[in-house]
Amino acid sequence: MVDVLSQNEIDALLAALSSGEMDAEELKKEESEKRVRTYDFKRAVRFSKDHIRSLTRIHENFARYLTTFFSAQLRTFVQINVVQVEQLPYDEFIRSIPKMTILNIFEASPLEGRMVMEVHPNVAYAMLDRMLGGVGTSPSKINALTEIETIVMEKIFARAFDSLQEAWKTVIDIQPRLEALETNPQFMQIVSPNETIALISLSTKIGDTTGMINLCIPHVVIEPIMPRLSVHHWFVSQKKTRAQEEIDALQSRLTKAELPVIAELGNSQITIHEFLNLAVGDVIKLNRESGEPLHMMVGDRLKYFGSPGTVKGKLAVQITEIVNEGAEDYDE
């Protein structure tokens, strides 16, 4: 990223050049030299800034969906926000989380591989306390989960993955499924220690309890869909989706539109005097013979030819011919 100087820094630089404190030739020489940047092979850069921005956008939606879900389930104030999206080795992620925590290991077909949603004990136990009828506080001492507590947590987090599916829908239709719930990070080895992961950190507040929810997505899992995380693909897919939705909505409204359909026996012209003197039994001569097909009008356009008849004692018209597309005008 190019550094942008402030106005004060520009003024100080110009003053130094004018007073001779700095040599312009030396600056040019330094600029022409090759710049060397240190690269740590243990922290391989697999996700570009474009990918990080897309992941941030996706999981901001995930945070909103998750806030709504937990608020409804726990019936208390819940606020979840994306704090940071970064890439780091898997081993570094394992060393950064507590020794006793809640690890939801899940898969998301059609993606191959496993991912992890780590929930800080403060948050997890506050959820558990709320689900079991408490006020939503976290205990001062964290103990191992009982069988009942494990089942309750598995159920609520398994349903929370529906929010992840909804958030990723704009990129790929995934089917997240909880595989296991662990409490000790040392027993969880989903990828090699040096594998690069995307770590999405979500700050979580439940009532008065605060903590973090971390989503660990290995690069090897989402590598097949990395091109879809580019900004160009994102906007193109959004545009296509929006255009298709507009087309579907338009077609749905058109199918419900009502149009007048008129079967014309023929027409005739009479004077006003003849019209005023019409009486029961009078005959008006039309411009078509009785054997000619009827003109069927949709709105004011000729669309079909038909013949008169009856169906179950009611007058009806049978379509015998469809007027060619574009034949809007016809001779009487």
Automatic annotation (TrEMBL):
GO terms for molecular function: cytoskeletal motor activity. The keyword Iron-sulfur does not apply. Residues 253-323 form the Flagellar motor switch protein FliN-like C-terminal domain. One of its GO terms (cellular component) is plasma membrane. Pfam families: FliM, FliMN_C. One of its GO terms (biological process) is bacterial-type flagellum-dependent swarming motility. It is a peripheral membrane protein. Keywords: Bacterial flagellum, Cell membrane, Cell projection, Chemotaxis, Cilium, Flagellar rotation, Flagellum, Membrane. It is found in: Bacterial flagellum basal body; Cell membrane. Belongs to the FliM family. This is Flagellar motor switch protein FliM. It comes from Paenibacillus albiflavus. The gene is fliM.
